[in-house]
Amino acid sequence: PKIVDADDSGTFWDKLDVNVRALGDFNALGVRRLVVQLAYPDENQPDAQRALTFEPGEAGPKPFSAWTNGKPPRYRARTEVQFDEDGAWPGPPIHTSAWQTQQSLELALHPLSEVPRVEIEISPGTLSFGETPQVQVDLRIDGKPAATHWLTEAEPTARFRQRLAAAPAAADAGAPAVPSRVEARITWFLAGGGKVEGDWQVVDGTALLVHRPWRSTRSVRLVPLLPDDFIEA
Questions:
Q1: CA-based Rg of the chain, rounded to a whole angstrom?
Q2: Are strands 117-124 and 207-210 parallel, antiparallel or unpaired?
Q3: What angle (nearest 5°) sits at the alpha carbon of residue 18, between those of residues 23 and 64?
């Protein structure tokens, strides 16, 4: 047996009480379930551990408690997000975040806060729908096809959303994560028939402007050199 001599005026009898709540509209985000795992003081040798599950529509807090036994009131937490297959954010079905140290007694978590993702708004720049009634925008991530969007006069804008797979753990813990490479290729369908296909270009930022297929135009005067009674045989 182990005998512990504790002073009732110290921190040995302190209790850690944490209220955990979920943020955001799960249905709009395409989230089916959010699981929050908590461990005190850490996940390796926890004195207390619990998994809290949040379903769509559950906005109320759920408690997590642990005796501190004189240890600092810091705990560890991580989230597991389970997505709908046809949700607003396509991507892998499940994302599990890394363990993080927390101290807040009111822990509010958004399902997408730790999820790597990309969102790009596609809109016309100098594009003229009278000249090119339909424009096809193909997107790929790290060389793999991701989505295809169409721009027309009836629907001149589009939004590209994609969740990304979690990056593998780097050998060096301090090494920065390598961002995914997003590229777009634009194909213009001309009003008179035919099409013009552009090259793959890297998309920087969160906006993609679609311009005309030509960088500039030039007016050329045509002068007939043949007589009016010329006959081609």
A1: 29
A2: parallel
A3: 100
The angle formed by the CA atoms of residues 196, 197 and 198, to the nearest 5 degrees, is: 120
Cα atoms in the 13 Å half-sphere on the side-chain side of 227: 3
Structure tokens at 197: 């296909």
The answer to whether 208 and 127 are in contact (CB under 8 A) is no
What amino acid occupies position 227?
P
Q: Where are the alpha helices (DSSP H) in the chain?
A: 26-29
User: Which pairs with CB-CB distance under 8 Å and at least 24 residues apart come from 154-158?
Assistant: 156/123, 156/124, 156/129, 157/121, 157/122, 157/123, 157/124, 158/121, 158/122
What one-letter code names the amino acid at 123?
Answer: S
Note the pTM of the prediction, 2 decimals. 0.73
Please give the sequence-ordered ranges of beta strands (E in DSSP) within 70-175, or none if there are none: 75-83, 94-96, 100-102, 106-109, 117-124, 134-141, 144-152, 158-163
Per-residue pLDDT reduced to its tens digit, 119-177? 999 999 999 999 999 999 999 999 999 999 999 999 999 999 999 876 654 334 444 45
pLDDT digits (tens, 9 = 90+) for 30-39: 999 999 999 9
The whole-angstrom separation of Cα 216 and Cα 122 is 22
End-to-end CA distance of the chain: 115
Contact between 80 and 32 under an 8 Å Cβ cutoff? The reply is no
d(CA 91, CA 163): 5
